[in-house]
Amino acid sequence: MQGTLHETEDGRHALSFERRLAHPPTKVWRAITEAEQLRVWFPAVVEFELTRGAKLCFAPTSEQRRRLGLHPDDLTYGEITAVEPPRLLEYTWEQDVLRWELTPAGEQGCLLVFTHISGDRGTAAAHAPGWHAGLEVVEAQLDGQAIDWSPWERSEELVEEYARTLGTSRP
After folding, report:
1. Cα–Cα distance measured from residue 85 to residue 40, given in angstroms and rounded to the nearest whole number
2. Which residue in 1, 72, 74, 98 has the most C-beta neighbors within 10 A?
3. Are 100 and 89 in contact (CB under 8 A)?
4. How far apart are CA 103 and CA 101, in angstroms?
């Protein structure tokens, strides 16, 4: 399911994704917070101290270094702004805000709502293909499926589709 884009009350732009998952919030929580699981799909190397106010350091992945020429010292920073296991995690990444909300749904499932808030529409929209591909990896990971495809290549496949639906140009 595609992400949607809307303007926030303060004039920023929110890219949101909703996923109904056949897994309880506690299992999904681990997929979005545990370093071992994040390494499979998250677009940076990061480990959390799940405490409000904790500082975060985002380092480039080996794939980012290879594809984008980033250096291991190209670090960015953030801070945990809200944490309520296993239902809410919010943190900053530089000027952006990433918010993960998990709500029980059905017998053993949950609704995952992920929102990425950026300062301008183009930046928010540019993240859509990558987050979409990452969430597909999370779903496969949760379902115990082998991930024998590249989220980078999947993201590239989605660029044109998101450009049409969100009215953005190709990066």
Report:
1. 21
2. 98
3. yes
4. 7
Q: What distance in Å separates the CA atoms of residue 21 and residue 10, rounded to the nearest whole number?
A: 31
Identify the H or E element spanning 13: strand 13-21
Residue type, 155: S
Query: What are the two backbone dihedrals, phi and then psi, of residue 116, each rounded to the nearest 5 degrees?
Result: -115, 115
Q: Please classify residue 1 by burial: count the beta carbons closer than 10 Å to its beta carbon, then call 0-12 exposed, 13-18 middle and 19+ buried.
A: exposed
Q: For the stretch 29-52, what's the b/e string if a residue is b when 16 or more beta carbons lie within 10 angstroms of its beta carbon?
A: bbbbbeeebbeebbbbbbebeeee
Phi, psi of 147 (to 5 degrees): -105, 90
- Mean pLDDT by 10-residue block, N- to C-terminus, for the chain (171 residues)? 92 96 97 94 92 97 91 95 98 97 93 96 91 96 93 92 76 44
Give the span between the Cα atoms of 75 and 109, in whole angstroms: 35
pTM for the structure as a whole? 0.92
Q: CA 31: distance to chain centroid?
A: 11
